[in-house]
């Protein structure tokens, strides 16, 4: 779930001084320029409006960024449809962050086991992966807004069921595993469609701005969602957290009704089965080198750098001697760092985004390595801000670069494969959970974090195609 600056889109009728010979007009009457065959080995997509495939920006545009990027930071919010989409996703992101904290807190309260936390993450992610494989195909075939709304209704029912069990004092660990799998199913349907909606709403010229604002909203909820959930857990109990989450899911469904329902291009409908269409999308990614490398980097960084989120409830309790409120604050300050990071990226002019991406990965790894060695709560809060800055940069830059280099006809399926990083995060959480159970959480988390730093250094030195992305 996108920004290293906002560049001025040239009007479609005005060409750069030296257009690439493969420049063409798509059926949507939008000019696209194909990158050289060394980068793209596949034929161009024939579907709809596509992103400008050439990553370089005209020099005159780049010079104008210095005075205009900051002023245009919130430009997409002038679009009424995007405003409703933005507000609706705020509610969805709030529930996801509240749910992550509340479920982890309940699992650790019921079991006291790091392995149980890792197992829950594994169950959720395996189901999410299975459903996301078809979720991307659905997103390319059907109205994305409707797909998101149906998924949110399913998530609301799951939250309501957990709330009822809590009120009845009947909740067990097995119930939370089932709820985690249900959340995985709904998330696998929701997120490929949700990530593919901004290009439809704001157009390609403002895509980077829209992705930046969406990331800023997500990280704002990463700040306030866990904080609110932690306070509610400490004062009125987890059952009311789940009641609030149910209400927010339903509110988001209603707010999305204000976003016009856009049906896909009739050419997107296909008599072929979903599995065959997914294979076609996978083949496209495998032969498009830049997209393949960006997705691979996302998987590796999720494996090594994201498991800390699942283990944070136990880490705060055992290493930092914190309670539920302090756990909520810990997750919230990571949101502060993420918000600062993504807004800073939104104000930068385009250029050297590959280097910034790898720098963000390294900052995340260094912050987590220091965090794993700390047993002081205040110092750990400060380090979590650093982790938030690095992780938001990694997610935003990876997202924008992927949308810049993928053809429009494959956007939903690319998003579903991008979601598979959740599976690698779950595998990482499961492995770190077992290591933490055996030798302690600090050594388990620290070893993975150090590997993340070494990975960033190795890619910078050995993979110039990623390092030199603009």
Describe the 3D structure.
- The chain is mainly alpha-helical and 470 residues long.
- The protein has one domain (80-256, 273-467): MFS general substrate transporter like domains (Growth Hormone, Chain: A, Up-down Bundle).
- Helix content is 72%, strand content 1%.
- The protein is built from 17 helices and 2 strands.
- A hairpin with a 5-residue loop joins strand 1 (24-25) and strand 2.
- Helix 4 runs antiparallel to helix 7 and helix 10 (308-318) packs across helix 11 (324-346).
- It starts with 23 loop residues before the first strand and ends with a helix.
- Residues 1-69 have low confidence and may be disordered.
Q: Can you describe this structure in just a few lines?
A:
With 470 residues, the protein is mainly alpha-helical. Helix content is 72%, strand content 1%. The protein has helices spanning 59-68, 80-111, 114-141, 144-167, 173-202, 207-235, 238-256, 274-287, 289-305, 308-318, 324-346, 353-373, 377-405, 411-418, 421-439, 441-462, 464-467, and strands at residues 24-25, 31-32.
Taken as a percent bin, the fraction of beta residues is: under 5%
For the secondary structure, the number of strands is 2
Global morphology: globular
What's the CATH topology label?
Answer: Growth Hormone, Chain: A
